[in-house]
Structures are given as C-alpha cells and as structure tokens.
Amino acid sequence: MSMWHERWAVKKTTWDLNGPHPLTKSLFQNCASLSPEKAKGRWLIPGCGRAHDGPYLLELGAKSVDGRDLVPQAIDEAGRLYGSVANLRLSSGDITQVSYDDVCAFDCIFDRAMLCALQGQARDNYVNACAQYLKPGGLFASLAFASTSQPEVGPPFQITRSEIEVLFGGNWRIECLEERFDGPCDQKILSEWLLIAQKL
Ligand SMILES: C[S@@+](CC[C@H](N)C(=O)[O-])C[C@H]1O[C@@H](n2cnc3c(N)ncnc32)[C@H](O)[C@@H]1O
Q1: 114: CA distance to ligand 1 center in Å?
Q2: Which of the residues 62, 65, 168, 195 could staple to 172 if both were Cys, CB 3.0 to 4.6 A apart?
Q3: Which CATH architecture describes the domain 3-199?
Q4: Which of 125, 114, 93 is nearest to 15 (CA)?
C-alpha cells in the first residue's frame, strides 16, 4: 500500500477544498484566451482526488473531463459525489503509466496540487507523462503550492519558480506563471502558482 492509499484510508485529505478551487475560473479563462479550441476540448485531471473541479470545468465550457487517481477509494468518493455528471469519466490508475489510447488524446490538463505533491525525479516523470497525454499545442494548466508555512511538511509541498522553469524548459513554452495570494490560503498554504505551459 502506498503512502497515498494510507492517506485516503485514514481520510487525511487535508488538501481537499470540498468544492472547486477559487482560481479554476481564472485558469480556465486564461487557457481560453490562449486557445479557445483547446479550452473547449477534452480535459484530463491527474490525481483528481474527489474531482470537485471536473463538473466545474464542464460548466465553464470543456467538452469532456477525465479524472484519474491512483487510489480507488478516491475514485469511489468522487463517483458518489459526481458519478451522474454527463461527460465526466472517473477511473483509477497510475497517471505516469500512459496507455497507447491516451497518447496525444487530450487538449488540456488540469493539475491542482498534483505536480507539487511529488518530489525529485517523480516530478520529471509526471511532466513527461503529461507531455505524452497532450496533443501538440495542448495546455498544462496548474494550481500548485508556491509557498507554505512548513516547506518540509507534505505532500503537497511547495515548488519554486526556478524548478518550474527547469521542468517546463524543454518541449514546452511557459505562457503564464503568476504567484497568487487570493486562492484558498490558510495557515499552511501562503500562495499558489497559476501556471500554464503549452506543449510545443
Ligand atoms: C494532493 S492530492 C490532490 C487531489 C486533488 N487534485 C485536489 O486538489 O483535491 C494528490 C492526489 O494525487 C493522487 N496521486 C498520487 N500519485 C498518483 C499517481 N501516480 N497517479 C494518479 N494519482 C496519483 C493521490 O491519491 C491524491 O488523491
């Protein structure tokens, strides 16, 4: 059993906002300004947890949303909340294992506290997997912890601007990287990145 399975088993899902993220609308609108066709296309949410942002992305104009999480319990809980929402598909599995059918299948990725939940090489592996999921010109849209009151405590952890620039320095172009203080800031989260990187 992984650390993630244990956290779900004891319901230590401290990152969960019990609803869509307050910056999801800004993130979606920024994507739509960059590429209206991509924003209206097929979205993937890696590490979706309870998938609160899935129905909201559909409401904002996404054609379909696939939420995936490593832990079956997360998907069960998401299914109980949103299982009847049209064009929202939920499934469990390791997001870094990209199946043949999923290569270049998505227009946009919505990442909230997934990239920053990982550390070291796992971040590179995740970004590489995301590049495989996206079509050329596809958008990686993320809300990631920029600074936290206890940087050593996680996951999720904070991620620095320079780490993001290195991770998205290859086959990507960073279109937006803003530090925002108007998200769900609390005693732990001091600020979050609003990041959009385009796959070249
Ligand atoms: C910090 S939580 C964020 C959940 C959700 N995005 C949210 O904002 O509520 C990270 C999630 O990623 C999932 N996860 C971790 N590693 C994963 C992997 N390799 N593949 C798919 N999901 C993974 C965990 O089970 C957990 O639900």
Answers
A1: 5
A2: 168
A3: 3-Layer(aba) Sandwich (3.40)
A4: 114
3-state helix, strand, coil in the chain (%, to 5): 35, 30, 40
Please tell me the distance from the alpha carbon of residue 140 to that of residue 168, in angstroms, as a whole number: 10
Which of 4, 111, 125, 153 should be mutated for ligand 1, with most atoms under 8 A from CB?
A: 4
- Up-side HSE of residue 193: CA atoms within 13 Å toward CB? 29
Q: What is the pTM of this model?
A: 0.98
Cα(43) to centroid(ligand 1), Å? 16
Atom of ligand 1 nearest to the CA of 155: 1
Nearest Cα residue to atom 8 of ligand 1: 112
Best residue among 94, 102, 114 to mutate for probing ligand 1's pocket (most ligand atoms within 8 Å of CB) is 114
